[in-house]
Structures are given as structure tokens and as C-alpha cells.
Amino acid sequence: MREQCCASCYDAAFDGALAQRELREYRRKGPGRASRAIAEALAREGAEGRTVLDIGGGVGAVHQQLLARGAASAIDVDASRPYLEAARSEAERTGVVDRVRFEHGDFVTLASGIEAADLVALDRVVCCYGDVERLVGLAAARTRHRLAITIPPDAWPVRAVIAVGNTWYRLTRNAYRAYAHSHQRVSAAAAAAGLEPAGPITAVGWWRLLVFERPIRTATASSE
Ligand SMILES: C[S@@+](CC[C@H](N)C(=O)[O-])C[C@H]1O[C@@H](n2cnc3c(N)ncnc32)[C@H](O)[C@@H]1O
Q1: From the CA atom positions of the chain, what is the Rg in Å?
Q2: What is the reported pLDDT for 219?
Q3: Which of 12, 3, 1 is nearest to 130 (CA)?
Q4: Of 63, 75, 78, 209, which is best to mutate to test ligand 1, by the most ligand atoms within 8 angstroms of its C-beta?
């Protein structure tokens, strides 16, 4: 059976020191490349009035960008309380806190209580979670329009580096594990929830960007 990080291990892996460091960096330099690419892909046809679900939002880079582009509201679900607090403090600073709902916990566990959103983001999150089918599948099921995901490249050298990292975590009794899930499994989980690829997989620095969307059913198509 695949090892799975427990709920409390995300608080330890993404702790207060890391969250504050990342928040300082975010405030100094703005969103990183992967977060910018996700926001760009999600807002391709505009974000005005859209709802956002930012799963594992970290310090809030993706939902902050989409709210700045006119998205109506966002839900940030994060398994790390320190990251959620960092995102809340950024939302307070930028004056959007009343448009963001913050939920602490594993999205897979909470998903049944999380409503669908137009734009859904999994920015550098899938590589922190063992059960890719459930994480991506439940995110896709809650996507009304578009889902954007950044994950590591699908290549054996990446898997080898991650395996070395996981051996280190095991030896140091750290329950956190990283994963380089196959892109085919990610796409299959999105497809099983009715989403289609919205373009080819693209490189964003070291990360790979996968974008899916829900096909629009025309009256003719749905009556066939
Ligand atoms: C590497 S950080 C990325 C943060 C942010 N998305 C970014 O790209 O800057 C991974 C984040 O995903 C969260 N996370 C991982 N698995 C999760 C899950 N199943 N449910 C909710 N949050 C999760 C972690 O707590 C952490 O905040």
C-alpha cells in the first residue's frame, strides 16, 4: 500500500517558519512562475465573477491573482494550518479576506462539504499526496469550468530523486512523502470526472502544467 502523509504531518512539513518565509518572499517578489502560469491558464477567458477553489493554496498566490482579476470569491483548502494562516494574513493585507473562505484539512476528506467552483487549482500539491486518483478525481468533480495542475515532470530521474528524498524522510522518521505521479494517471482521473484536456502539457520552469476543462454540452449534443 502507498504511504500516505497523515493530516498532522502537513502542519509539520509546511510549518510556521516555512509559511512565514514563503510569505515574505511572496510579498517581496510576487507569485512564482508555476502560480502565475496556473492563474493565467484559469483566467484565459477572464476571471470576472468566477468562483475559485484553491486546493493546497499555500500563501494564497493563485487565489490572490484571480481575485485581483475580478473573481467573485475563493475557497482555500489547505492541510497545513500555518499556510492557511499565512494566506489569511495576505488576504487581510490585500483587502479580500471577506471574499475568501479558509478550510483546514485534507481536501480528499473534506471534499463532500466543498461546493463546486468555476476555476480549480492544484498548484504544486499533487506531488505531496499519495492517492492521486482521489485528489485529482475529487478536484475534477468540483470543477465547473477549468482545472489547472502543476506537477513534476513525468520522468524516471525525477522519480529517482524523489525516492532518495523519501528515504531520507523515512530515516529521519518524518512522515511526509513526495510523489512524482504519472501524468497519464492524473489525466485519467480528470477524464473520469468528465474533464477534457484544454491543451498540451507545457513546461513552466521545472514544473509541468496540465489544464483540463468541462466540455460545454450543446442542446443538440445533449439530446443525441
Ligand atoms: C508545496 S506546497 C504548494 C503551495 C502553493 N500551492 C504554491 O504552489 O505555492 C503544497 C501545499 O499543499 C497542501 N496540501 C497537500 N496535500 C493536500 C491535501 N490533500 N489537501 C489540502 N492541502 C494539501 C500542503 O499543506 C501545502 O500547503
Answers
A1: 17
A2: 65
A3: 3
A4: 78
Which is nearest to 188 in space by CA: 155, 124, 117, 140? 140
Q: Write the pLDDT tens digit of every residue in 5-27.
A: 666 789 888 999 999 999 999 99
In the chain, domain spans: 7-215
Residue 170 to residues 162, 166, 177, 178: CA-CA distances in angstroms?
A: 12, 6, 9, 11
Distance CA 96, CA 196 (A): 32
Instruction: For residue 207, give the H/E element and its range.
Output: strand 207-213
Q: Which residues of the chain have pLDDT under 50?
A: 1, 222-224
DSSP summary character for residue 112: G
Task: Name all residues whose Cβ lies below 6 A of ligand 1.
Answer: 10, 14, 34-35, 55-58, 61, 77-80, 83, 106-108, 123-125, 128-129, 135
Write down the residue that cell numbers 492563474 correspond to: 39
Q: What is the CATH number of domain 7-215?
A: 3.40.50.150
Neighbours of 44 (CB within 10 A): 14
